[in-house]
Amino acid sequence: MAAPQSFYELYRRTSSIGMALTDTLDDLISERRIEPQLAMKILANFDRSITEVLADKVKARLTFKGHLDTYRFCDEVWTFLIKDVTFKMENSSQSVTADKVKIVSCNSKKPGDPQ
């Protein structure tokens, strides 16, 4: 039997759909409609699915320009804080601007995978 794979839990806390799923599961646990173990299995399935879909299905390209305010590298995670950012989608003349943007980046290898 293959060893279970681990996936980042990042999208649970940083995406609207991940936060909505987590809130809904918390409500179901509070109402005693599901067991916490089932909620953990659902979240693990979400982690796997969202990682696979983003890697395989999303092909859009985005460029951005801005002023790097601060950056850090801690526990294998890069964090960049950028000011006065302009985003442009490939094949589009439209742009979007933001005063501040936080980018969190982690290794594309799953935790526990060999290098």
From TrEMBL:
Keywords: Initiation factor, Nucleus, Protein biosynthesis, Transcription, Transcription regulation. Transmembrane segments: none annotated. Pfam families: TFIIA_gamma_C (PF02751), TFIIA_gamma_N (PF02268). Signal peptide: none annotated. Residues 65-108 form the Transcription initiation factor IIA gamma subunit C-terminal domain. Its main location: nucleus. One of its GO terms (molecular function) is translation initiation factor activity. GO terms for cellular component: transcription factor TFIIA complex. It is found in: Nucleus. Residues 7-54 form the Transcription initiation factor IIA gamma subunit N-terminal domain. InterPro entries: TFIIA_a-hlx (IPR009083), TFIIA_b-brl (IPR009088), TFIIA_gsu (IPR003194), TFIIA_gsu_C (IPR015871), TFIIA_gsu_N (IPR015872). One of its GO terms (biological process) is transcription initiation at RNA polymerase II promoter. TFIIA is a heterodimer composed of the large TOA1 and the small TOA2 subunits. Belongs to the TFIIA subunit 2 family. TFIIA is a component of the transcription machinery of RNA polymerase II and plays an important role in transcriptional activation. TFIIA in a complex with TBP mediates transcriptional activity. This is Transcription initiation factor IIA subunit 2.
